[in-house]
Amino acid sequence: MNEPSHEYEQRKYEVFLKTVGPFLSVLFLGIILAVAQRFNWPEEGLKVLLILTLAVFLFRFLTPSITSRLWAAILTVALWIWAVQYLFNLVDPLYNLLDSMAVTIGQVHVSMLTVLRAALLLLILYLLSKNLSVIFHLWLQTGSGLPAATQALLYKLCKVLLFSVSAVLVLHYMAIDLTFFALFSGALGLGIGFGLQKIFANLVSGLMILADKSIKPGDVIQLGDTYGRINFLGSRYVSVITRGGVEHLVPNESLITGQVINWTYTSSLVRVQAPVGISYASNVQKAMDLMLKAAAATRRVLQEPKPSCSLTGFGDNALNLEVDVWINDPQNGIGSVKSELLLGILQRFNENGIELPYPQRVLHHESIPEILIRSKPES
Prior knowledge:
Strands 6-5-4-3-7 form a 5-stranded antiparallel beta sheet. A 3-stranded antiparallel beta sheet has the order 8-10-9, covered by helices on one side. The mean pLDDT is 77. It contains 11 helices and 10 strands. It has helices spanning 6-38, 44-62, 69-87, 91-100, 112-144, 148-173, 180-194, 197-212, 252-257, 284-296, 335-351, and strands spanning 102-105, 108-111, 220-223, 226-233, 237-242, 247-251, 261-262, 270-278, 308-314, 319-327. The chain is 55% helix and 15% strand. Among the domains are: 1-89, no CATH class; 217-262, SH3 type barrels (Roll); 270-351, Alpha-Beta Plaits. By secondary structure, the protein is of the alpha+beta class.
């Protein structure tokens, strides 16, 4: 599942704020009803108002999370049918009918009423967990001050915890013995070990990446021929967007087992090296000064650390020079900086008479000594 966008989280947060009023009203009416029952005050009007307020709260809280209009309408109708049953005392006959439709499996007695209640409880807990996880993620992004990798790890752990607790509560409500799942979990582990090995390895690798913070959203990495910025860390893959706009989905296992170059792991400073060759007849010191001026005029090149130029060797046809510059935005690409730098150097070389080398070959030959040719006299 992809991470929810900021707009989506903001919308869920607004929905949560809209449900605060009805929730507080339900809580207040519940307290008043308990007090009325304690002192034998009239309570029929309070019950009606409490049921209606509870229906409004559930409608506002549950329906915005359902994207399908059909299921949202079904849930709305179900909520109001439930409210009408309570208001007109139709609950007991319906409950008795549903409870009579039951089956017994071992020591577990399951009726249609239990199944419907468990399904409703599961739906409510699922939507509640979903909303709470979104609110928790929004708080992580806006108020926690934690690194992005830590935020992603805590968000995933929160979702797993909430949904696991929801499933356990539903199973406990249905009176299903949880020890039954011990054997099932062993078989599941065996299946994961053989059939789902790669998927499970990617899941574990994703948790390891989030835990050790070696790679996080926004980092610029190079994996083989793939060079780009990390856009998203998923549970199964990492999204890497290149400078050309191509989005690569790299499995998490490849980042753990393979060699990865993280250009921005501890610092965003990156050195760019540009080798240049000049002819032996050119002024070396003047060429180095021109290369430094070209580096200073290149966009995105930092003045601190300062650019440097050095003579690196004597080639067959040229004096080998190299200019080193520093940038702090490798996510915008390195090739463009190097290209602009080389163009600036070429322009200054042409303006100041610095010659570029051409391949040269020197041929040595020796004169062939004279050969005396004798002709054979005719017989």
